[in-house]
Amino acid sequence: MRSLPEDNLSYPVLIKLEDGSSGSGFFLNDNTASNLYFITAAHVFFKDKILKNKKATLTCYSKDLNIKNPIVIRLDLEKLSEQKVIKKHKIADVVIVKIAKMENIDKSKNVEGVEINLPEGGMLVTIINESIKKYEDVLVSNEVFVLGYPNSLGDEGQIDYERPLLRKGIIAGKNDKTKNIILDCPVYFGNSGGLAIEVEHTGKIINYKAIGIVTQFVPFKDELFSKKYGRVVSVNTENSGYSIIVPMDTILDLLQT
After folding, report:
1. How far is residue 164's CA from residue 151's CA, in Å, rounded to a whole number?
2. Is the pLDDT reported for residue 212 higher than 50?
3. 3-state helix, strand, coil in the chain (%, to 5)
4. Phi, psi of 89, rounded to the nearest 5 degrees
5. Within its chain, how far is the Cα of 158 from the centroid?
6. Where are the alpha helices (DSSP H) in 144-247?
7. What is the per-residue DSSP string for 71-113?
8. Which of 23, 163, 183, 228 could lock 44 by a disulfide, CB 3.0 to 4.6 Å apart?
């Protein structure tokens, strides 16, 4: 038996952009409005308020893990921006993109500028409202999984960058001033926008809940002080192993604007 439900392994989405940069994300099915959204960190698509690229390619895998061919979705970011279906949070590092509108249980209508290519038998796996846990309910010390595509890791041939990697850690703390969640779990370039899932044990029942997205790693700054000059002469910034998660509350608020 897996430590995560099998379909959770299909949550992470790889983002590839024209400038060679990449990131991670996931799909959210807003049950109440019957809309399908793509969620990622705002800095993956934007520099300040300006789109960094005109197009993006999303790659993910079907609910049935035996289907090896990926699902490929192409986004015309300019067209989507013109239709105002890309929403960037005013403060938080979050962006949502409306992908499709569900017309009935078996059919959806893609937004103009979205091309979805499903392999035979393929099915998107999405977060639904019932799979979400809000900030106030997140429990410090619980286990957490981070899902994404840290494409900055490894030497040539060590990692298949077209496949997601999981990282396991714990919820280390919560910052009530910023309403961000702190994980004791390292993240790297390429993880931005990736989903964090909390594991909660209630008796014999195990719950797996989406709690937010990766936006930053927490740096450790090592300063070299010169006695001769009486000042800091260099600063070395390293990855502390802690990371920052923007909670699902922020994403839900953005959906309502």
Report:
1. 9
2. yes
3. 10, 50, 40
4. -65, 145
5. 23
6. none
7. EEEEEEHHHHHHTT-EEE-SSSS-EEEEEEEEEETTEEEEPTT
8. 23
Quick one: how far is CA 205 from the chain centroid? 26
Query: DSSP states of 185-236 as a string?
Result: S---TT-TT-EEEEEEEETTEEEEEEEEEEEEEEEEEEEEEETTTTEEEEEE
Q: Residue 52 corresponds to which tokens in the numbers above?
A: 């960094």
Measured on CA atoms in the order 57, 250, 185, 224, is the torsion positive or negative?
Answer: positive
DSSP H or E run through 128: strand 127-128
The dihedrals phi and psi of 113, each to the nearest 5 degrees, come to 100, 0
Phi-psi region of 22 (alpha: psi -120 to 50; beta: other; left: phi over 0): beta
Each residue's pLDDT tens digit, 92-140: 999 999 999 876 445 568 899 999 999 998 889 999 999 999 999 999 9
* Max CA pair span of the chain: 73
Task: Give the chain's domains with CATH numbers.
Answer: 6-129 (2.40.10.10), 135-248 (2.40.10.10)
CA atoms within 13 A on the CB side of 22: 22
Backbone angles phi, psi at 8, to 5 degrees: -65, -25
- Rounded to whole angstroms, the Cα distance separating 56 from 198 reads 29
H/E run at residue 35: strand 35-40
| 219, two tokens | 């740096």
